[in-house]
Amino acid sequence: MKKTILVVALCVASSATWAATLCTTGTGTAHTVVANMFVKVTFTPKCSANTSVAFLESANTAAVGAISTKGNQIFSGHSNGGSVGLRAGTSSCGLTAATACAAADASTAATDALAASSS
């Protein structure tokens, strides 16, 4: 029984994804290495003014989503052959201050990019 529980726990851990909003305008939060995940070296990102970046990783791929609040654009990409570019589908947040891009849009773009990397 213990072996079965251990195997199930390891399978769940290996298929999990880890997310982090890396930065919002300026130096971000250090992304630390998680065992059996894609990133193997800790890094601390820096964002330009009026930008936010979100990052997701699984055991065999990484994905990023980014937004520009001034340009109202959403970018995404992944490590499985998906270069960073305007997000497929909805690539803009709107053209008024009421619909400006937010950090949550970067997280959504990263989630979509990670899903696309496995297809």
Question: Secondary-structure blueprint of this entry?
Answer:
Layout: H1 2-15, E1 18-27, E2 46-57, E3 62-68, E4 73-78, E5 82-86, H2 103-117
Antiparallel strand pairs: 1-2, 2-3, 3-4, 4-5
Mean pLDDT: 75
Major sheet characteristics: 5 strands, antiparallel
Give the N-terminus to C-terminus distance in angstroms. Answer: 34 Å
Overall shape: it is flat
Share of helical residues? 10-25%
- SSE pattern: HEEEEEH
Question: What is the tally of beta strands?
Answer: 5
Rg, rounded, reads 16 Å
Strand proportion, as a percent range, falls in 25-35%
Total helical segments: 2
Task: Write out the strand line-up for the largest beta sheet, numbering strands in chain order.
Answer: 1-2-3-4-5
Unreliable parts: 1-16
By secondary-structure content and strand pairing, the structural class works out as alpha+beta
